[in-house]
UniProtKB/TrEMBL annotation:
This is REP element-mobilizing transposase RayT. Signal peptide: none annotated. InterPro entries: RAYT_transposase (IPR052715), Transposase_17 (IPR002686), Transposase_17_sf (IPR036515). The chain crosses the membrane at residues 6-27. Pfam families: Y1_Tnp. SMART domains: Y1_Tnp. The lineage of its organism: Bacteria, Pseudomonadati, Bacteroidota, Cytophagia, Cytophagales.
Length: 174
């Protein structure tokens, strides 16, 4: 695998985490709020530093690092916890009209990758891209902030609730 897509200690990274099958899970506030809650936990207790982020309907983009330098472990723990928690929330959500379909799809993707897992929520890859120049950092920041605008969700980046562009974001940014 190319060094371009690997975490290393002390780096600043642009990371993308994508739901299997590009399933639009975060179109529901309940599940997007769980992501914010879990990211805040990682920030407060595991040393994650998030500088920019956006939660789209089926993926998360972040510019992040770690105080101890181990972004890879934090992201692995985050994905493991949130996968289980969001599956649980879907199972318990009486108002989730897509419950059967969502659980079927997460089971389908699990069968293809691991006989030990009942569900697979996240794609395995994170595509960490090392950000080593100010120009590259600005490029990725603009990409993150304008993603909801390009998707036609909002007209102005600051109007999107699940983004670092929103001054009222509940995520504790670095």
């Amino acid at each position: 695998m190319s060094e371009k897509y690997r975490f290393f200690e002390g780096g600043l990274f642009f990371v993308t985490m994508t739901v299997v099958g590009w399933i639009d899970v975060f179109s529901r506030k309940l599940y997007a709020d769980e992501i914010i809650k879990s990211l805040n936990y990682c920030i407060e207790h595991k040393g994650l530093q998030v500088f920019e982020f956006v939660i789209m309907t089926n993926q998360i983009h972040m510019i992040c690092s770690a105080r101890d330098g181990n972004v890879s472990k934090i992201i692995k723990d985050f994905k493991s916890f949130t996968a289980k928690e969001i599956i649980r929330l879907i199972q318990e959500n009486k108002r989730e009209s897509r419950k059967e379909w969502l659980l079927y799809m997460f089971r389908y993707f699990a069968r293809a990758t691991s006989p030990k897992c009942e569900f697979q929520f996240w794609q395995h890859r994170n595509h960490p891209v090392s950000l080593e120049t100010n120009r590259f950092i600005r490029q990725k920041t603009n990409y993150i902030l304008n993603n909801p605008v390009k998707a036609g969700i909002v007209v102005e980046p600051q109007h999107y609730i699940y983004s670092s562009a929103n001054p009222n974001t509940e995520l504790k940014l670095s």
